[in-house]
Specification:
The chain contains twelve helices and no strands. It is mostly helical and 313 residues long. Helix 3 crosses helix 4. The longest helix is centred in the last third of the chain and has 32 residues.
Length: 313
């Protein structure tokens, strides 16, 4: 049985792996649509083999498959626009825009759950918006990338909210399998239309792209999801989500090391990034106080019940 220390090691390893997703997206030369299509195809095949060997492959009721299918389509669109943002700008812009998912979550979640919007969450989100606004104006070359990244973060927020609704009824690998298959089928239907309005040539990945896509599927999808699930057995969901606030920073550092992106960034970018980090710190501090208050009221420490990971990027 794993210890708390082992759980934290797995958690931070998963955050580091998540930081590589943007880097791999930049390294893969395929269009973002075909990048995601191949990623989901390979991941679906690998998950099918894993579930079959473990004898955990199960056919779900049609209603449940449709629910997971809808969530999988949201994840697919999020990935397409996320990688589109990176290819239209750079890794740093793409992952920083992903920070906007907290803003959209603060708006979408109350609307979908029919509860009042919390002013505190909106104020924290306003800091993030100010940060993105600074970054948006620092170079006109990256405005398309920022627009795609903003749309990607909105889709990510919707995915996280809806995924939590369906994640409590089935195992995490089963959920991931059905979401991958549905995303793959969704893109397969759209690809003929995409080809009609683009080059018209279906691209096949070269050996280098195959290696990078395999890394995305094995490490950044299945491995990442498995590590998150194992971490949640000993660590609260709040701590897991808090740790993932480091993900954009890891991605930016990796992009600077691998692509030398610091040459493309200026003071406005770092000022905007500083506001986003401040927003994250304030939200994290508020969350910690909320948990401590809840523990004090109950008279003893209680960890929030485990929930399926939100599968960041």
């Amino acid at each position: 049985m794993q210890s708390i220390k082992q759980s934290f090691v797995k958690l931070h390893l998963s955050v580091l792996i998540a930081g590589f997703t943007g880097v791999l997206g930049k390294l893969i030369t395929l269009n973002e649509v075909f990048l995601v299509w191949y990623r989901m195809l390979i991941t679906s095949i690998l998950l099918l083999i894993i579930l079959y060997v473990k004898k955990q492959l199960q056919r779900l009721p049609t209603k449940e498959m449709l629910k997971l299918g809808g969530v999988g389509i949201l994840l697919t669109l999020h990935w397409v626009f996320f990688y589109g943002s990176i290819k239209a700008s750079n890794v740093s812009i793409g992952v920083v825009c992903f920070s906007l998912s907290g803003v959209f979550t603060a708006i979408f979640e109350p609307l979908l759950h029919r509860r009042r919007i919390k002013i505190k969450e909106i104020l924290f989100s306003a800091l993030t918006l100010c940060g993105i606004s600074l970054i948006f104006h620092f170079d006109a070359r990256y405005r398309l990338g920022i627009a795609l990244g903003t749309l990607s973060s909105a889709l990510a927020a919707l995915f996280i909210i809806t995924n939590k609704r369906v994640s409590t009824q089935h195992s995490s690998l089963t959920i991931l399998f059905y979401e991958m298959v549905s995303g793959f089928l969704f893109l397969s239907v759209l690809i003929p239309f995409f080809l009609h309005f683009s080059s018209g040539i279906f691209p096949f990945p070269n050996s280098t792209n195959i290696v990078y896509i395999l890394c995305l599927s094995v490490f950044c999808t299945i491995g990442l999801y498995t590590l998150q699930t194992h971490a949640l057995r000993k660590i609260s969901a709040f701590t897991v989500n808090l740790s993932y606030n480091l993900e954009p920073l890891y991605s930016i550092v990796l992009a600077m090391i691998i692509f030398g992106e610091e040459k493309e960034l200026n003071f406005a970018f770092y000022a905007g990034l500083g506001l986003i980090v401040l927003s994250v710190v304030l939200q994290s501090f508020g969350g910690v106080l909320k948990v401590k208050k809840l523990v004090k009221i109950r008279g003893k420490k209680k960890r929030p019940p485990p929930e399926a990971p939100s599968f960041n990027i």
